[in-house]
Every structure is written in C-alpha cells, then in structure tokens.
Fold each of these.
Amino acid sequence: PYLVMDADLTILAANDAYLRSTGATANAIVGKYVFHAFPENPDDPDSTNVAVVRDSLKKALATGLPDTTPFLRYSVPKTRGDNPDFDERYWSTTSTPILDDEGKAVMVVQNPIDVTDLYNFNKTSHKASVESKVKAAEGANNFSRAQMHEAMLRILHDERGHMRNLFNQAPGFVAVLTGPNHIFELANESYFQLVGHRDIIGKSVWEALPEIKGQGFEELISGVYTSGKAWTGRSVPIAIQRAPGAPLVTRHVDLLYQPVFDADGKVSGIFAQGHDVTEAYESQIAYRETEERLREGMMAAKMVVWDWNLANRHLFFSDNAEAILGSVPANADELMDLIFGDDRLKAQNIIDQALANQSEFEGTFRINRLIDERLMWIEIRGKVRKDSEGNSESMRGVALDVTYQMEAAEKLRNADRQKDEFLAMLAHELRNPLAPISSAAQILTLTQPDRAQLQRTGEIIKRQIKHLVGLVDD
C-alpha cells in the first residue's frame, strides 16, 4: 500500500492496496490535506496519533531520508461525513521523500502496513503486546506473507536499534564476552573510550588488550566463567593503554563480571559492566591526605575543633580532643565542671554575651585535666550559628592549649618583677658609698687641706670605691 503526498501533505494519489487497507476511495481522499482525509477521532483522540504521523512525514521531507514508525495506533473512518464511525487499527509505516533534480524533497510516499492482527492493545495500560498466534490470512484486508515479513523486520530493526542506543548510552562502560576464550561480542562507547577506541570486537580479551595480562584479570574472568558466580570489585587498579603507542596509565574502576547463561543453563559468556572512578578515587586519596595533614597540624598546634548543640547541650569534639584536653566532656555542663575556680563565671559571661548578640567570641580559661590532674590553660574562639529562621542553634569553634604560652608569660612577669626589685636595691646601695665620696670631694674643693687631711680624705674615697666595685661584682 502506498499514499503519495506533496510537500504540503496534500494527497496526490493512492494505490488500490492502500485504498483497500484503509477502506477509502480515491474520490474521497485525493486532493485533500491528509489529516482532513483521515481526521482525528473526536471521541478517542489517542486512537489517532496525528502528531506522530505528521512528525514522521515532515522529518522525511526535511531530511530527505526515509523515516520509519514501526508501531502506530491510528483509527481510520469506516464511514464518511460529519460524524464518521472509526475502525481501530495499528500500523507500521515508512515515509520516503521524493527528491527533485536539486535534491529537494517535493513529495513524500507513505507505505503503511496494517499490523492490527499482530497485536493486542490494552486500552487501560496503553500498551501493545504481540499476539501469541497470528490470525490466518483471509480476504484482502489480512496480511500477506511479504507484508508480515516486512512489518516484523521494521519492528525488530527499530527495537534492536533502540536497544543498541540504550546500550551505547548506558552509564559506565559495558562489554559482552562470549565463549571460553572470552571473545568481545559487544562493547559500548564508554568501553571504547576506556581502551583507546581499539579494534576489539571479534578478538579475545588478551589479544585485544595484551597489556592487562599479569594484572590478575585472567584469574578473575576465568573464575567467573568456570564457577558461574559473579564478581564485583571497587576501585580496582588497571594499567591500560589509552591511545596507540601511548604509555600505560593506571585507572581505577568499579567492576562487575556477571556470567551469562544459555538456554541449557550453562555459562556461555560474561557481561562486564563498570565505571571509571579514577577521578573520584584520586579525590578521595587527596581528601584523606588533607585530613591527615590537618590532624597532624592540629596535634602540633594543640588545637581541638568543637561544636555545641544548643538544643540538647551536647558537645562534639574532633578526634584529638582526649589527647589534648585529657578527657572528652559529653555536654556543656561537664565542660563547665572542668573549668577552674573563678574562670567558670568568666566563661559563662562570655557565652551569654555571645548568645545575646549572636556574635563571635573568644576567651582564655584554666581547666583541670582529669587524666593527670594538671591545670592547663585553653583559649577558645568561636561563633554562634543560626538556623534558617535566624534563631541561635549551635556554637562552633576551636580550643587551643596555651598552657606553655601562659606559663612563659608568667615567668617573664616574674623576671621583670625581680629585675625591678634588683634595680631598686642597687640604686639604694649605690647611694650609700656615693655620699661619702661626694663629701670628700667637697672638702678637697672648699678647703686647703694639709697632708694629714689629704691622706684621710683619700682613704675615705678608696674605701667607698672598693665598696662600689664589690656591689658591681656581686
């Protein structure tokens, strides 16, 4: 059956087979727009898929290439007039463009094959299923063997193409190996990308990918084939050549080998499926290294990260908390019990003020290390975190062990105090010998001393200088 239309989808001609299959006459349809000749069923629009047919015809005209719709539900009028009755039918159609000398599509020929007798259509689920037994051909409206063969080929070709398209677009790489020699039968685009778009179909794994020998895959694949049991691996390293002549690169893959069984229940091949997770694996390794560096840095800096849930008052600490603080308080009350003496009130005031202002805060307190009963100094810094409605929900921050700094500062203060005391004592001691020296100098200046006075004055000066030298030496 053939229907000929121009580029505007006006019917130009129809052969006898088309007229018999649709129950139409040439006078009733020729010269009409195709969807006026075969209108939509107003009582059941889904039974006349006008949009699907229109898209197929326009696609053929636009591309200059045939377009096939392997299965189509389209009812045809049994009677003509204002209120026609419709006969529900199912079709397999091919729209073929006719080109002019310049290659432009000027007409389109539709070849519909009535496949109604091949299918059962469930109106509730809107799904069609193949009849278990095709009805015998009787009369002009039933299938000829050639038509049935053509229709089935169209359907199988479309389904196979659809499956191939799904196979190629499957997430991750997929390949099918057949026989005990593990011959590549199928592989999708992702698998070809993994192996550098090599010619692998029809070759054994070891012939197609010789570089993977000795990496343990021989045992894995053979084990799945002989045991009939699937194997799964995570982040499996594989050294592979990604381009001809290129050096081997290591990729990490999540991999599944699934045995394929034939009709007798025997293993006939292996279905290989997986994902190249190299980037995720490397990111995970980098993350672990970053975490390790952070932990080491926090230990070196004696820093603890903490989080306080204000609703239940639970405290959460980083893993190094016990090593630094000597214990891990479970809640805020236990932490307050560790704070030493008057520092507890100071800490509470800082927290209350931060909560009132929903702000950042910091403070330095003494706490008792329960593990060794040693008094230590910690400096806390943090901020109040708010929920989506702006209410305070938690506090998060860090605690640093500043015991060494605080003790060093205390030692420095003690040294400064001792220095001040020494300088005061020195000043006092220096004033005592300087007074007699000053008096002796005045006597020498204001009088004319005789020899005996000069000798006594000199003795005074010598004695006081000796005292000064003793002070300096001490």
Amino acid sequence: MSYMTDEKIFTPRRVHQGCSDAAIHFQKTMEKCFATLLYKHRLVWIDDLLLYADDIDTYLDKLAELFSLLNDFGLKLSVKKSSLYQTEVKWCGKIIDANGVRHDSARIESLRAMPYPSTAGELQQFICAINWVRESLVDYARQPPPSSAN
C-alpha cells in the first residue's frame, strides 16, 4: 500500500502495526521464509518459532539450516526469548514433549477460576477463552452455548 501526497508517493517497507491484516501478512511471510522446514522440523505462529527433531544430529542439522534461513531473510532472534536443546517446551500456551502436546495446566486452572459470566461481554470473553482448548473438550461442538441454555 502506498500513500500519495502532492509532493511524493510513500511506500512503507514494513507492515504498519495495528493494520487489520498485519498479523495475517506476517504469518504468511514467516511461512514463506521457513517453507523448507515448515511442519517437518519447524512450527511458526506469528513471531513464535519452534524447531524440533527426533535426534540431536538432525536437530543440529536443522538448526544450522534455520540460522541460514534467518540470515538469508535478514531476520533476528532474541537471545533472551530463545532456548535450545529442550526436551519439553511451553509454546503458544501448550506443553510439547516426547509424549505429545497438552494444554498448560496453569492456563486450564485460570479458565476454571473464571467467575460465572453475568454480562454479555463477560460471556463473550469466556467463550473466546474456552475456544482455545475446545479441541480437548469432548463433545464441545454438541453442547449448547451458555447463552442459549435454559
């Protein structure tokens, strides 16, 4: 998107923060950057990256490939937010380890501790919060929403 004034045309080099399509654009861009690793050894959710492998040799090989891709696309990682060689990680609110993927128990407890909704806004907030764990709830789609229950 460019902006035209009476003097010049301005074309931003970066996505504007707060733009309604910014997150989608950023996600698609990250998926393109890491396409060779995506879903084989790498997961990307906006600016959260996860590299995984079955063994240390493969991990080191894919880590080198990751660093090469980061360099090729001019991307940087935060050392403070990075951790390497982990057997268990908390990523996007879930715990991932050799046994699979499960929800973070602290997050589940905070959902359980939510007060019963008393306004439409609180009900909407609860539904949005519970949607994060819906794939783990048996028959979630068959349950009537609280707003239509008698």
Amino acid sequence: MVISLFRRKTSVSSKPQSSSVKGKILRRGFGGSRLFAPLTPLPKLACDLFLLSVRIALVILLSTARLVVPPSKKSLLGETVLVIVTRELALTITGAGHGIGRELAMQLAALGCVVVCWDTDVEANRDTMSIISKDGGEVHGFVVDVSKRVEVREAAKLMRKAGIPDVSILINNAAILMHQPFLEHKDEDIQKIFDVNVLSQFWTLQAFLPAMLQNKKGHIVSMCSMCGFYGVVNKVPYCSSKFAIRGLVEGLHEELRLAADSSNINFTTVYPFYADTGLAKDPKYRFPYIFGAVSPKYAAGEVIRAIQRNYEECSIPRCLLYLDVINRVLPKRAMRLIIDFLANVKR
C-alpha cells in the first residue's frame, strides 16, 4: 500500500516460411549478395580509420581539458526531483529519512527544486519533509516500497493526481547490504537484496522515463558503489547487485544515445566508497584521508555537483574513479596486490 504524506508548499505477426522459401533465401544469400558482402575499399577504410583516430584524439584532449576547467554548472531551480531514500541494513530499515537521502533532499530543496521523497519509514520521511518546509522549500512525501512494482506505479499515479510536476531528476538511492559469507545468506535475503537494489530501479525507470522522453528533458542518477568495480569479501550478493546497476545504466544509456530525440536525457552513476550512513562500518583502510568514511552531507554535495555538471560517473572521494582505469589495465593478480596493500592484508 502506498501512503501519501502531508504536502508542504510555500509561496516561494509474421507467418512461418515454407521450406521452398527458406531454400530460396539460403541460395540467394550464398550467391554473395548478403553472406559474402564486398569488402570496404581500402582507400575508404583508411580514410575512416584516420577520421576515427582524429575524433578519438579530440575527445581525449577535451576530456583532459575538463579536468582543469570543469563544465559549467547547470541551474536546478524549479526542477522536480524524486529522491528514493530508503536505506536498509541486514534487512532492517534504519530510515532513509536520514543519511545521504535526507541530505540530498535538503540540499536540492535549498537550490530551488521541488522535492518528492519516497521512503518506507513514515516518521523519518515526515521529519525530512518538516525540515525542508521550515526552510521554505516545497516538498511532497510518499511511503513506498520501491521493491514492489505495483506500489511504484500506484505512487506515480498519486503524484500525477496531486498535481506534482513531471519528475525531471530521478535519484535511485535505495539499497540493502548484508555482511556475511556467501553460503550463510538465506535465499529470501538474496532475493530481497536484488529486489531493492536492482529491480526497484527498473520499476522507477519504467514509471518516470516515458515522461522524460516526452518532455525531452531528464536526469537519471543511480547510486552504485565501489563494490560495483571490485568484488569484496562477505558482500557477494551486494557486489552482484551493484555490478547489475552498472549494466542497467550503461545499457540504457547506449539505447537512448542511439535513439532519436533523447539527447537531453542525462545519466549519472555514483560510486561512493564508504559514507557514514549506518549501512556499513568504516573498513579502516590505509590512507584514511583518502579511504576513510565521509559524511552524508559531503556525499550528497558531491552527487549534486555531478548532476549540475552532467558527469556520467562520479566517485566519492573523486580520485577513486581512476582506480577503475587501473583495474582495467593491470593484470588481476597485480590489482589484488594493490587492494591487499590498501586494506593492510598480508598474504
């Protein structure tokens, strides 16, 4: 069941082919018209390769320049932002009305966004809404279990009936983490992890992406994890769900990139290391000033910065994104040595 909380607003078919037809198709293909298509002429191939090399070089130069001079920030004033704030630990709700979800809602409201909060915790959601309303922001709240497709669709309908503007920024922040050896996980726990961490993003995308495409405007933010880059001991289901999120976002991004009239749909995948949200304990890695836990306030600020600059990927801290580049280049054994060194593990 979806519960709408109080609303605070201030002034501010084809037929099977016969064997004879199939035979004709096979013979025609074997004759060279399709199966043995003529090769690209060498001069044209050389020209295409040259143009490709030039374009790659330009992209590398532009990307390098962006490291020094980042893109300008876009205004978020008036945007309607849906923040999925549910965070759970060991399948017990800790309230997402705190943590990164609450900080995102408050900071986005301060930037002039219309904020919609979805949470499974009624009281935590009310508290978040109360804080935003007192500061003069516009906020709406709904109690929704995003792992259930029916509730997601029902909540989307309630939002339209309430006159809430179409969602232009969707932030999928729901997550469950269980820390224990793989064989100790119960079947229902693994199912729940994937329902909340992965399938919930499918349901919210199905509910809100059509309006973004119709309006030719939208931004989809998926909270992933550094566990989406590397497998981590005692977090096998969680890591698997985060790898799945990467596949979902990259696949959908490519699909829309090649589609017509979808160039204004932006994607941002966020890879936090450890945020002090109660979802996981600080792992006590070496170099704590780089690998230590960060506050939810700082993490939310980094997410908003990535949204404003239309970054496709963002890690928290920022430097950790380059570890994925190293991971793709180095042999697996070499990367494991680096990870063991950082974790102060002796083998």
